[in-house]
């Protein structure tokens, strides 16, 4: 396990930027900012324009860490306290889950909750609770 | 113009994720590890994002249409069913195992770290598998029964 520093200001500022981008995407394209929808839509786009806006959005997202480096001199910290096997198994399960659940932290947790969508509130409460239980079981019941 | 503006929206999202700590699995998992190395930072990410989006959407929905499209394209379903809850529960399980969520991992690709590419490759495989189950297997099961 890796200890991480409590960063309320950076996290709040990051959260406000995430909310700003969600607002801007709704203002410009009338679309929900969901990472699941971006990946899923790129894999099976309904049309060329449908592919194009998602590709542009993804290209922008990937620019984010480099821009942070330009502004602050640091790349975002990425510390991975799990094995490669856990990344693969976890990634597969996340992919299946977000497809059947129609969204993830950004789509349900931010955009849907901000619209007070009952589906998104139910989805967010479910995945937050299950993540909490999963982390507890892996770290304190199975224990490493 | 439309695509460049969309690119810039992606940049703001990617910068926000990078600054917030959502791209860092150690920080995400510590947020959920209340009984251990707890780091409450992510409550500020969710709070900041939710309040901003809530106010922002109120302003945007005052318009009759978005800037570049004729209509808002917002999910309208209100049904809470097994698929939604089961899928979300699976997502939580995977998130707790890997520490990355899709929104955290996509911008993190820009760091070039191999762990992020491993996760995103598995994520894509999982989505492809679920799409296959939804489009090919489910209709056949229905037809057979």
Give the strand tally of chain B: 0
| Low-confidence sequence ranges of chain A | none
Q: What string gives the helices and strands of chain A in order?
A: HHHHHH
Continuous helix count of chain B: 6
Compute the number of strand runs of chain A.
0
**Helicity of chain B, as a percent range:** over 70%
Span of the ends, CA to CA of chain A: 8 Å
Give the helix tally of chain A.
6
Features:
heterodimer; A: mainly alpha; B: mainly alpha; 70% helix
Quick overview:
Chain A has 144 residues and is an all-alpha fold.
Describe the protein.
The complex is a heterodimer of chains A (144) and B (145). With 144 residues, chain A is mostly helical. Chain A has one domain. Chain A has helices at residues 8-29, 35-43, 48-72, 84-100, 105-114, 118-143. The mean pLDDT of chain A is 96. Chain B has one domain (2-144). Chain B is 70% helix and 0% strand. Chain B has six helices and no strands. In chain B, helix 1 (2-20) crosses helix 5 (102-108) and helix 5 (102-108) crosses helix 6 (114-144). Classes of the chains: A mainly alpha (144), B mainly alpha (145). At the A-B interface, helix 1, helix 2, helix 3, helix 4 and helix 5 of A face helix 1, helix 2, helix 3, helix 4 and helix 5 of B.
What topology does this entry show?
The complex is a heterodimer of chains A (144) and B (145).
Chain A: H1 8-29, H2 35-43, H3 48-72, H4 84-100, H5 105-114, H6 118-143
Helix pairs in contact in A: 2-3, 5-6
Chain B: H1 2-20, H2 25-32, H3 41-60, H4 82-98, H5 102-108, H6 114-144
Helix pairs in contact in B: 1-5, 5-6
């Amino acid at each position: 396990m890796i200890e991480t520093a409590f960063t309320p200001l950076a996290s709040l500022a990051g959260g406000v930027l995430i909310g700003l981008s969600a607002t801007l995407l709704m203002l410009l394209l009338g679309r929900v900012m969901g990472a699941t929808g971006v990946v899923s839509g790129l894999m099976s786009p309904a049309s060329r324009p449908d592919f194009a806006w998602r590709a542009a959005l993804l290209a922008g997202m990937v620019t984010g860490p480099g821009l942070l480096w330009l502004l602050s001199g640091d790349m975002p910290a990425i510390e991975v306290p799990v094995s490669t096997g856990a990344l693969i198994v976890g990634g597969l399960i996340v992919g299946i889950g977000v497809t059947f659940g129609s969204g993830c932290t950004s789509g349900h947790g931010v955009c849907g909750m901000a619209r007070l969508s009952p589906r998104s509130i139910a989805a967010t409460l479910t995945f937050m609770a299950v993540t909490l239980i999963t982390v507890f079981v892996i770290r304190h019941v199975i224990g490493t | 113009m439309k695509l460049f503006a969309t690119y810039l929206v992606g940049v703001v999202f990617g910068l926000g994720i990078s600054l917030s700590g959502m791209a860092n699995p150690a920080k995400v998992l510590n947020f959920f590890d209340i009984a251990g190395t707890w780091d409450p930072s992510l409550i500020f990410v969710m709070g900041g994002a939710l309040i901003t989006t809530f106010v922002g959407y109120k302003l945007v929905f005052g318009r009759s249409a978005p800037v570049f499209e004729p209509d808002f394209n917002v999910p309208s379903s209100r049904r809470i069913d097994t698929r939604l809850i089961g899928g979300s529960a699976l997502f939580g399980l995977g998130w707790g195992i890997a520490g990355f969520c899709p929104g955290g991992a996509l911008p993190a690709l820009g760091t070039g770290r191999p762990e992020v590419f491993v996760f995103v490759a598995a994520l894509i495989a999982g989505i492809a598998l679920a799409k296959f189950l939804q489009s090919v297997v489910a209709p056949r099961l229905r037809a057979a029964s």
